[in-house]
Amino acid sequence: MSAWSRITETRAKFLFFPITIFYWGVIFWRNIFYNLNFFVSRSVPATVISIGNLTAGGTGKTPAVIYLSNLLKNKKYKVAVLSRGYGRKTAGTQLVTDGITKDIDWRNFGDEPTLIAKKLDGVPVVVDQNRYRGATYIIEKFQPDIIILDDAFQHRSLERDLDVVLLNTQAPISDYKLIPHGLLREPMSHLKRADIIVFTKSEEMQPHKKVLNHAKKTKLPIFYSSVKLSGFSKNDSTIHELAPNTRALAVSAIADPRSFYKSLESTSIDVVSKISFFDHYEFKQTDIDNFKETLEKNNAELIVTTEKDLVRLSGLNLNGVEVYTLNIEFSLDDEGVDYLNSFLN
Known about the structure:
CATH architecture of the largest domain: 3-Layer(aba) Sandwich
Helix content: 25-40%
Strand order of the largest sheet: 3-4-2-5-1-6-7-8-12-11-9-10
Order of helices and strands: HEHEEHEHEEEHEEHEHEHEH
CATH topology of the largest domain: Rossmann fold
Number of strands: 12
Oligomer: single chain
Largest sheet: 12 strands, mixed
Strand content: 15-25%
Distance between the termini: 54 Å
Structural class: alpha/beta
C-alpha cells in the first residue's frame, strides 16, 4: 500500500468513526431494551429456528437454510422459511412460494428468498420485514411444525427456540470490526445471545485464533460445516460437464467473492478474468454488453457465477452469452447433526 493510500484510509476511518459509534449505540441500546423487556419478543405456535450471523453477509446463510430445510423435511417435519426479503421492490407480507408453484420474480421477494424457493420442494417461503407478522401468516396458511428464520439474529421481535449463528472460517480478521471499518453488525461479545455457533466454509482451514477464542469464551456448543462443489449448471437443476481448461469469465455480486473465486480454482476451468460487484447488486443490460465484450477480448467461452447471482441475471437478455453457476452444497459436521436431532427430540 502506498503512503498516499495509507493516509487516505486513515482519514476515511476517522471520518466514519462517528457513524461507527452511532451504529454501535443503536445496536447496544436496542439489545438492552429487549433484555429489560421494554421491547417485547412474541411467540408463535411452532418451533422457530433462526439462522443468522454477526457480519453483513458472506457466511453462507442461504445454503445453510436450504440444507436445514431439507434435513428437517426428510425427517417428516412440516417446514416453512421466513425471510426479510432484502432488496425487494415490494412491502408487507409476500408469499414467494407455497412449496409447489415457483413462477416467481426475484424483484418482488429478494434474490435470497427466490433462490431458497427455487432450490426447495414442498417448503413454503414467505418474506416479511415484520417477522412476527410473517410467522403468523405462515401459521395460519400452512400450519408448519418448524419455521426457519433466514438472517434473523438481529431481529428479536419473534421468539426463537434455537438461535444459530454462523461465522465464516475463511474471513480475514479485518472483517471482524464494526461497520464501516469491517463487516460486523454488532460486537463479537453479542455471540453469547446465540444457542450454538457454526463455523462455515471450514473445509480448507481453521478459524482465525482470535475469532475462535471469542466463540469459545461463550461456552456455547461449537460445530463446523463445509461446502462441497456439486458441478456446474445453467438456469435449471441439470449438471453440465465443462471441458477442462474452458476459458471463463467469473462474475460475482456477493458478500464473500473470495470464497467463490477460491472454489473456482479447484475446478478444471480456466478463469481468465474476474468481475466483482457489491452484494445484491442489480445487474443491468449494459453489464451484459460489457461481459460480452470482456469475453471476446479474452477469447473466453462463457460466464461462471454463483447461484444467487444467476437469480438476478436471469431476467435480462443474455444476448447469446452462456452463463453457468458453480453449485455448492452446505454440510454440517456429524456432531452438529447429532445436536439438532437431540434438540428436535
